[in-house]
Design a protein that fits this description.
The complex is a heterodimer of chains A (388) and B (132). Chain A is an alpha/beta fold. In chain A, helix 9 links the parallel strand 6 and strand 7. In chain A, helix 1 packs antiparallel against helix 3. Chain A starts with 11 loop residues before the first helix and ends with a helix. Chain B has one domain: 3-Layer(aba) Sandwich (Rossmann fold), CATH 3.40.50.280. A 5-stranded parallel beta sheet of chain B has the order 2-1-3-4-5, with helices on both faces. Classes of the chains: A alpha/beta (388), B alpha/beta (132). Chains A and B meet through helix 5, strand 3 and strand 4 of A and helix 1, strand 2 and helix 2 of B. Bound molecules: guanosine-5'-diphosphate and magnesium ion. Magnesium ion binds next to helix 7 of chain A.
């Protein structure tokens, strides 16, 4: 028999057990039976009649189908935690619950914090949480760190800086590894944000290292994006190369206790000033000096974030931004799933390997091969087929 | 996507050295696990909150300061009280042999003293971790 999830022992299986234990009693009587009893279940059952056995087994498998969506909406941290794990694993069990949760999303404000490793993002996040909590809002944090491309493992150290909030029931912190995904994000990051959104967190902070050129980076997910820079790292030049300067709504010059902070501040401001002449935009990024370790400049930073939020809301940009995000996301999901389906089918019977060999030997070409496969999947409408 | 073992490495108590814990964290990561390192001076409550939010499969506790007899069972107890009965709790650090029995009876599944080959720790974890 499969083991049910430990945290949810006081659900159907337990009730079933009690029904069983008190044969003849009313069906909805319950009693406290712990996890360890579940292990005894098969032995207890074997002593009884086969009919009852089937009843119990049936009910027990019902336990596997716990309603995570409902529990998340009711505030269960453990249901959130497990659903997130499934999303990270791309476990099929997750998606029906995501469908249920989706109508409850869209309420949270999503803040992206990005910058080089060691820039102070986690420390900054910790202090921002403190400020946000003071205003009575609840917070969810998704802290993404890279997976090792060699071992697939990851060392996730962002919680170290956020210890202060670990037992606050209104703060939910989740560390994530990128698992080979580019752009400083994990593939499931946007799903995880949705879970925390449905869970009722008012503000969701995504901490990521750097920004890729991928469309699936933090900018595509956050309402407000803060880029954290530090003096003395040649960050500005690097960032300009990496395209980071285009994506910031706010700049944070952290470690302002260090030499070179004013210089960096000036460079960034000059760059922003330049940009205003090149691009028309309703929003001019602002620059904020902070000393995150000492909680200096954080209150001002949070106020500036709220100002950007106001701007987005009053100008209609927020709706526009989210429409664009939804558009991209919908396309991406269809793309991913179609790709997966086709790839799996091609790999299943070794057909892909054979095709590759034939292409290698020039008995085929990849162009017509692709068309052939798509034809099988009936992606072309009859009309296009005729035309081709 | 392959499932990964998620492990919290925590350092309860007040001592300020975490070189050993950090090293272990790195070893677990090298072994393909996703390791959440929580840092120094963690209370059992903080550790268990982290385990709950991170959906940790394993909690690895390290102690050098002789507080293990209080902290380790406390972590197990708090996990149980939250219904997190299937989280594997293991301990390490400087722990006198005569305490092993007590700790294991209180639900710490394994104790790894100094000098335990890291591969032993890793394989113990891999063969005792829950499914999810
Ligand atoms: N001097 C100084 N150090 C800071 C400041 N903010 C963070 N740090 C330190 O920088 C290091 C990296 O911080 P962390 O928040 O982990 O950076 P992250 O990698 O960007 O998340 C830590 O040792 C922090 O204590 C700051 O404002 N001034
Ligand atoms: Mg960090």
């Amino acid at each position: 028999m499969e083991r049910p999830d430990a945290p949810y022992c006081e659900s159907p299986a337990i009730r079933t057990l009690s029904i069983y234990d008190e044969v003849g009693d009313s069906a909805d009587s319950t009693c406290e039976i712990g996890y360890s009893h579940l292990e005894l279940l098969p032995r207890m059952l074997s002593a009884r009649e086969p009919v009852l056995l089937s009843v119990v087994v049936e009910r027990t498998s019902g336990l596997m189908n716990r309603d995570y969506a409902k529990q998340i909406l009711e505030g269960s941290q453990q249901a959130v935690a497990r659903l997130i794990s499934w999303l990270e694993d791309e476990d099929e069990r997750a998606y029906p619950f995501m469908e249920e949760l989706y109508p409850h999303t869209g309420k949270a404000y999503i803040l992206g914090i990005t910058g080089s490793p060691g820039a102070g993002k986690s420390t900054l996040t910790d202090k921002l949480i403190r400020n946000i909590r003071k205003s009575g809002l609840t917070v969810g944090i998704v802290a993404v760190d890279p997976s090792s491309p060699f071992t697939g493992g990851a060392l996730l150290g962002d919680r170290i800086r956020m210890s202060e909030h670990s037992t606050d029931p209104d703060v939910y912190i989740r560390s994530m590894a990128t698992r080979g995904f580019l752009g400083g994000m994990a593939k499931a990051t946007c799903d995880v944000v949705k879970v925390l959104d449905a869970f009722g967190k008012d503000v969701i902070i995504i901490e990521t290292v750097g920004v890729g050129q991928d469309e699936v980076d933090v900018v595509g997910l956050a309402d407000t994006t803060c880029v954290v820079l530090v003096p003395g790292l040649g960050d500005v030049i690097q960032s300009m190369k990496a395209g980071i300067m285009e994506i910031a709504d706010l700049y944070v010059v952290n470690k302002a206790d260090r030499e070179g902070a004013d210089q960096l501040n000036m460079e960034v401001s000059a760059r922003i000033e330049q940009d205003t002449h090149i691009k028309m935009s309703g929003w001019t990024p602002t620059v904020h000096k902070t000393v995150a370790v000492d909680n200096v400049g954080i209150k001002e930073l949070w106020e500036a974030i709220l100002k950007h939020k106001d701007f987005l809301e009053s100008s209609g940009r927020l709706v526009e931004k989210r429409r664009n995000q939804t558009y991209q996301e919908t396309l991406r999901m269809i793309h991913n799933e179609m790709f997966r389906l086709i790839r799996d089918q091609l790999q299943e019977n070794g057909r892909l390997d054979r095709l590759v060999e034939e292409i290698l030997e020039r008995r085929r070409d990849p162009y017509s091969t692709m068309r052939e496969i798509l034809d099988e999947w009936q992606f072309f409408t009859p009309k296009q087929k005729e035309a081709s | 996507m392959a499932k990964k073992i998620k492990i919290i490495v925590a350092k309860p108590g007040l001592d300020g050295h975490d070189r050993g814990a950090k090293l272990l964290a790195r070893i677990f990561a090298e072994e393909g696990m996703e390791v959440v390192y929580t840092g120094l001076r963690q209370t059992p409550e903080m550790i268990v909150a982290a385990a709950e939010q991170e959906d940790a499969d394993v909690v690895g506790l390290s102690s050098l300061s002789g507080v293990h007899n209080y902290f380790f069972p406390k972590v197990v107890e708090l996990l149980k009280s939250k219904g997190l009965n299937d989280v594997l709790v293991v301990g390490g650090g400087i722990i006198p042999i005569e305490d092993y029995d007590f700790l294991q009876k209180s639900g710490v599944k394994a104790i790894f003293g100094p000098g335990t080959p890291t591969m032993d720790i890793v394989s113990f974890i891999k063969s005792n971790v829950r499914a999810r």
